[in-house]
Amino acid sequence: MQKFLSRLFHHLMKSWSWVLLIVSAILIKWSSYYPDWVENNFTYGIYPLISKVQRFLFGWIPFSVGDLFYIFLSLVILFRAFRFFKLLFKKQLTRKYFASGLQQAIFFFLFVYVFFNALWGLNYNRTGIARQLGLQVKKYSLADLDTLTAALQVKLNQYALAVTEAQRDSLDKKSRLFSEATKAYRHAAHEYSFLNYNPGSVKPSMFSYLGNYLGFQGYYNPFSGEAQVNTTVPRFLEPYVTAHEIGHQVGYARENEANFVAFLACRSSVSAGLKYSMYFDLYSYAVREIGRRDTTMARNYQQRLHPQVIKDLKELRDFFRQYKNPVEPVIMWGYGHFLKANNQPAGKETYNEVVAWLVAYYKKFGIEAI
Fold this sequence. Notes:
This protein is mostly helical.
């Protein structure tokens, strides 16, 4: 392993590689200040070609190539850490070793930064779907929130009654789940061409059980173009999580936008299971925002839920309680700072910002559009 890594870094860390990475990093940072340029030249210029090639190369493989890459990377980091502490224990650390290690670390992070952004990350700096739909996303009042939450609850209760146990079971099959979510985007693309999604590449995460302890339900791998879904979360969450991750694949990097385009896609689906999952999630975001402003109003909403929704809410609380641990808050703290560093100043609260998008949407298209 040591010889392999030494050879790898020796081949990569040529002087021209440093120059190329540094110049690329500067250009990426410069372009991030120009959302219109990113939208026109990256999001709808280079990125569609990159994403289609990635999904063509890896989408047909039944397991996650990106997860294998993460496993390899984790093994490398563990090996380097083991070697470091071994030398430290034997008091064999030298200045040359430190200098070489620092140089390799800088090169590695620079390499990851450039390829992360060049393959997908620049989408954090696009103008986004507000421009595409002409939405005026701004602060909303409690009355606006009340109107939205009432509409979401009506839909949620409606689909809680409509979705059968057999339909819920069918979406527990991963191939059916991913197929229905992909179809939802293809249906939505008839109305919104920018949601065109082909070919598909959605896979179960190899780290699903670990994800329950770390607090993630899905993630997108920009290096392989694959969307990964934690398939061990309650089954009524999985459809919307899948649609959210596909939202990242079609170029919406910010979490509020991925949530919003997942709403547009699921609303276009013929699957009652997808729609129930979507309204369950969006209602949860909305009623949480009400709870921050008026706890009595939030409590009244909870008392008007369909029994199936109440049952699912209990299952969700039990699920989170089961996997509660001291590591998750630390991971989420780091993830929140990652979001802030990528043009999402609200951090983890960015997910909740989908509420503002929904308010702007119904104000333009009418509450019946929800």
